[in-house]
Amino acid sequence: MRLLLLLTLVCASSHAFEWQQDKNKQGIEVYQQALGNGLLKLKAITVTEGCLASFESLLFDTQNANKWLSNVEKVTVLKSPSPNEHIVYTQFNAPWPIKNRDMVTYSRIYRTSKSQTQIGIQAAPNVYPKQSNYIRIEHVEASWVINQLSQNKISIEYQAIADPAGKIPLWLGNSVAKSNVFNTFKKMRARLKLYTCN
Prior knowledge:
The chain is an alpha+beta fold. It has helices spanning about 1-15, 50-60, 170-190, and strands at about 20-25, 30-35, 40-50, 70-80, 85-90, 100-115, 115-125, 135, 140-150, 155-165. It has a single domain (about 15-195), classed as START domain (Alpha-D-Glucose-1,6-Bisphosphate, Chain A, domain 4, 2-Layer Sandwich). The longest helix has 22 residues, at about 170-190. One of its GO terms (molecular function) is lipid binding. Pfam families: START. InterPro entries: START-like_dom_sf, START_dom_prot, START_lipid-bd_dom, START_lipid_transfer.
């Protein structure tokens, strides 16, 4: 009886946190996973032209980050403890009526093989002083996995969960997050063509 109850609870929990497809268009798939606190964990997947080197060049071109990261005003690398570790400060232009946000993150990028790059991102809110007119996002976790499928084709998978902080209704925060992920991937696919493969 206890085993049956345990299996029932596990199955119910597993079902509650399954990925649900939110969007599939323009070569971009967006999935959502409802968490117990009301926030959504998001996943986006695409296959597009490019290579590991071009994606990394896009990522490190922080001066032009606002041209593909949705609602991002500015990205600044504060310091790099090592060639593959970076402390990054990001400012967001949030859509009305949401106040502008900012965040500080620690990221680590590494090649797991000749055909794969992985990036892990986590919040580091206390590394940089809080700025006036911005609400600090203090809880964020994200990851990128980029696979080289052929000479000039890559698959890109992104997962993220973030608490936007402040007084935002959950439905509005989740809606903006899903829109941002899709628009980021759409602009990313177009912008990748500007970076060459070595």
